[in-house]
Write a structure and sequence with these properties.
With 118 residues, the protein is mainly β. The protein is built from 1 helix and 7 strands.
Length: 118
């Protein structure tokens, strides 16, 4: 038994598929998808690649070891955070004030904590 779609229905389905795949000219995607929102509390959006790309992790508590390391971050919290090049808050560090971010850390970040914690 053969199944067939009437020609008019097939044309309508094709037109609907094309219309659904249309791209609006000039529309730009946000750097961070809107559905991720801004985490509450002491949260930072951390990314495994530069320019806010790669795997996303929400850092809410101090981290002695970040694995895999992060390469960029956005501080959406209300406190200053420090990002270290070595585990256990060792080596060089970068400070991000609330509402600030960096698309490229000078080194892969291996640990992080709020400023003034230790």
């Amino acid at each position: 038994m053969q199944w067939s779609v009437p020609r008019r229905a097939a044309v309508s389905m094709t037109a609907a598929a094309i219309a659904g795949a249309a791209v609006i000219p000039g529309a730009r995607a946000p750097a961070v998808p809107r559905q991720l929102g801004r985490p509450r509390g002491h949260s930072v959006c951390a990314f495994t690649e530069q320019d806010f790309r790669g795997l996303l992790a929400h850092i809410r508590l101090p981290r002695l070891l970040i694995e895999p390391p992060i390469e960029s971050a956005a501080n959406h919290s209300h406190v200053t955070w420090c990002f270290y090049e070595s585990p256990a808050y060792g080596g060089l560090h970068v400070v991000l004030e609330p509402g600030r971010g960096t698309a490229r850390f000078p080194y892969p970040v291996r640990s992080a904590r709020p400023a003034g914690k230790g």
